[in-house]
Each structure stands twice: as C-alpha cells, then as structure tokens.
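Bug #77: duplicate submission created two jobs. Keeping one. Sequence:
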Amino acid sequence: MLDPWYVTGFSDGEAAFTYSRAGGSFGIYFSVKQREENRQIVEDLQRFFDGIGRIYRGKESKGVPGGGFSKPYAYYRVTKSSELQMIVEHFDKYPLQSKKKLEAYKAWREMVIYKKNNYRSINYDYLSGLAGKLSLLNLQSRALKIHKLKWVR
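Kept job's structure:
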C-alpha cells in the first residue's frame, strides 16, 4: 500500500486535475499517465484509491508531422462524481505542495463540489467560469514546466 504523502507528492508532479467539455456538458476528471514500463505505479494508485477509476492502455504512436513520438503508456482516469469525491478527500487531507498545482487543484475541487451539489440545476455559465480559471492555471503550469526544461538543456 502506498503512503498517502507519496501519492500526494507523485501527483504534484504527474497528475492532471482537469475537465473536458462537449457541448453544454462538462466531464471532470483526475488522471495520471505513465509510460508502460511504469504501469505498476498506475496500478498501485488505483489500488490506493480503493479500485476506483479505470486504467487504459495507450499504444505507441509515430505522431503527426511536427508532432512528437509517444511510447506505449498506462493512463489512469477517475471520472465518476462519487469517485472524484474520494480524490478530493485525499488531497484535502494530504495537500499538494507546489503552488501552481495546488491552485489548479482548488479550482478543480470547486468544480467537482459544485457539480455534485448542483447536479439537478447546474449553472453552466458558473461552471464555465471555473473551467476557464482551471484552464488558465493548467496552461501557466505547463508553460513553466516547458520553460524549466529549456533552461536545463
């Protein structure tokens, strides 16, 4: 069994707190993607969270012109509202440490709780505003990561 603080630390660097949008509906999810050779950690995370979510297998991809190459990977994703509540409970009890990830988590958490508490009468404008905030935070976090990678090289 993984240590709860290990899960938080690993998630600080590797997890995504995000959403997808199709028309007027929002899918909120927590995910972790690792190369197939690291599949064990993905399976351990799923076990840590009592088996919730699903693990998908991604195939090797040559990419598109100008795009990247990807190796086979394991992708863990939690999407059900009742299951996302377990994710929220964990990170509320064992908070993320990086400022950027913590801010993104807080916006994501607000989306999860809002959608759970208002599932019969969701204000999509409000949810859309939260989604915009989360997108901006995730974009800033990725930009910072890319900047650091370029600096290290």
